[in-house]
Amino acid sequence: MGCDNSKKMDGAAETEETEFKLDYEKFTLDNGLEVILHVDKSDPIVAVATVMHVGSNREKPGKTGFAHFFEHMSFNDSENVPVGANRKMIPEWGGSRNGGTWSDGTIYYEVVPTDAFEKILWIDSDRFGYMLNTVTKEALEREKQVVKNEKRQRVDNAPYGYTDEIIRKNLYPDGHPYSWTVIGALPDLQAATLEDVKEFYREYYGASNASLVIAGDIDITETKELVQKWFGEIPSGPEVSALSPMPVKLAETKSLYFKDNFAKLPELRMVFPTVENYNKDSYALQVLGQLLSGSKKSALYKTIVEEKKLAPNVGSYQNSSELAGEFIIRVRANEGVKLDEVKVAIDEGLQNFETNGFTDNELTRIKAELETQVYQSVATVLNKAFQLVQDNEFAGDPEQTIKDTEIIKNLTREDIMNVYEKYLNGANYVMTSVIPKDTPELAVSNATEATVWIEEVGAMAANEEVSQGAEAVYDKTPSKFDRSEPDYRAAPLLKMPDVWTGSLDNGMNLYGIENNELPLVNFEISITGGHSLDPAGKAGVASLMADLMNEGTKTKTAAELEEAIGLLGSSIYISSGSEEIAISGSTLARNFDATMKLVEEMILEPRWDETEFNRLKQELITSLKGREANPTAIAAINFNKLVYGANHPYGIPTNGTLQTAEHITLEDVKAFYNNLSPKAASFHVVGSVAKSKVENSLSSLNKNWNGEQIAIPNNPISENEIAGNLYFIDVPDAKQSVLYIGNIALSANDPDAKKLDFANEILGGGSSGRLFQTLRIGKGYTYGAYSRIPNRMDKAAFTISSSVRANATLPSLEIIEEMVTDYGPGFTEEDVELTKNKIVKANTRAFESFGAKLGMLSNISKYNKPLNYVDKEQALLAEMSLEDFKATINKYMNEKDMVYLVVGDKKTQLNEVKKLGKNVIELDIYGNKI
């Protein structure tokens, strides 16, 4: 990659245009597979990404969701890889892998340490070209359950989950490839047959219908040879004819409403048909979306949020796909607001935009922010692989996104107004009013009720049990190469980044990692305290104060501050967590000094604007009300309340509750501000900036920011008698039950903290963990199941969590109970070695991104870890014996010490969970006993 040809951008302080590119080499195999190679030797890792040019747009009515379903099927077995190994082996090599499907394509991707490079080519090529013979009816039925659970979790059990389906059915005519959702309909999935799978594979999974990118620590010449070996024999497949753009026009505006079982807030969307990806108008529409709602000066924001106070925010954006596009305006309103008022406000905002347009600075700000986004989008080898592979397959040019950036930089005022007139002004659209089920009066007047197919909990098939089944019997596909698993290569050298440290006279400590791969800098000031210092009865003060500090300074209004940051291509955001206040952001390296001046202004000269405070308080209340619609949030909040008690900061959400928020005043926020002291602060910085430059840029902050040491209160965790109890919270008609199981364990400062982290790896550490392998792969009860222990200054809770099919609630609980009970006694020497191998190899990927490096610096400063703490933790792991693992499991993961929480449909599941034999206690959604 290279950056040169710099010149000044008009109107932006210190910003400049740069020519940016990713170096790559592209070639095509005889079977038609297009291959792109990119060398990046900054870390000993390799990313592999394959795009198949087939998405839900190739499906047929009655067989919807099939492209996504086939993606799931592809992760099962293949001819030359052991049964079940595809999902387990890659994490055991220290890698990660996943896939995704959208309307136009399917992507498969992996990142592994360099020693597993050829292994990933082996497993990836086998999935691509040698999986069809291994598909069995049992595997088909098992994966159906997984995909159905994914739909239940993401769509059926989520507020506003059906909105996409309603829009697609009404925006696109019957039979249009975008008239159904990517995930499809449950009846269609249930009806899928083995022959459907084979037909889909034969039609679309040929080598000539794909692009492959390999990026990272590779040798070009050798990699070409390996690609030819592993991928060269995959059949080309039949020619897949390209689909031409299929934009739509609406003969009339359609207004629909839907009574949502989970939503607590009314939401309005307006969707205008536009143009496909890479169309010249799509770039101007992207910028139009930002100009309409992307800043405090934007027309829709000023009308809807600032003037009429109908909603906490508004979004507008262009969504382009291969065949067509949509421009979307979306407003989730405050509780009880009639969407007729929102619609009137949108119309007024659009009229104001049409009349008054936008300033030159607004357009310049968007272009400056875009430059930073381009660099951030290629900050890891996997992100580079994503960009190269998708641009190659859908635009025919791996550099198309970079060229798009240049197009956007050159857009004019006339370009923006032309697309506004062409696609929005006076155009027909689809409008959806999604409202809480008991408040149909909030919908836009005269809207027609939308219909969707909804699964009934009580009608779920009781016999949806699946199994591994017998292996398929087949003749192996002949090959001129030995397609058995290749050996590991030379072990990569794990090298922690060099960390520099320092301190300022005002007491703030400095921690940095200089990295010059990209002209970017990421930073964070972490100030101990946060939510843990909230006054009694006023939880959420720290969070509200942090939010208000983003809304202007003494000399700048909120809009002026936002513009000043944006013109630098920077971001600065102040937030509150359980244990700290964070001032975090990113900037182009050349604008680091100017960005730090704005950081100083935000810290030392908050505006304390009463109008902004009132708006933010209303936004908080709206957010807290919306949270009541989310079964997963209900479970997480109440689990913490159970194990920590109602008075411990960890037992109360960081942004408070509806009850605490009501009592917070502007004076409370101002008083809390006194807790921000440099003596409790650490500055973390990663990127293209030297220590001397950092110290110089912070000299003014060092001089002007002073304060005393802040005392952090000791909040004892109340002793409670909840171990062994099962708590149940009713969410009527929930298609899934959310499970939280665990109890208080230990602090990140405890000498046993890493031991527990290591000991959890086999049970719930990702997709290769036993929870995931059993509940998802073995039984098809869930989309995912994990266990973890977070890092906390105070004691953290060891937690097992999953969302399972409603009528699989009891068997899932029984499996978890048995698995945890047997975990310690059944832990073996083989498990010890597997744990050590996985963690050591995964560390090769642990510090690649700027965010990961910042996290490393945070660990060093917050928990007083040595600069080489990862080396020390690896040494600790190497020394752990089987007895050490067993002792850790018995001490912190004892099933008898755990509390169980289930959030689900009481009507069908309460009596079922009572069969587990535990003491069952009912709670309401706020954690009060019923």
From TrEMBL:
GO terms for molecular function: metal ion binding; metallopeptidase activity. Residues 35-159, 519-631 form the Peptidase M16 N-terminal domain. Keywords: Hydrolase, Metalloprotease, Protease, Zinc. The keyword GTP-binding does not apply. Gene3D superfamilies: Metalloenzyme, LuxS/M16 peptidase-like. It holds the Pfam family Peptidase_M16_C. This is Peptidase M16. It comes from Patiriisocius marinus.
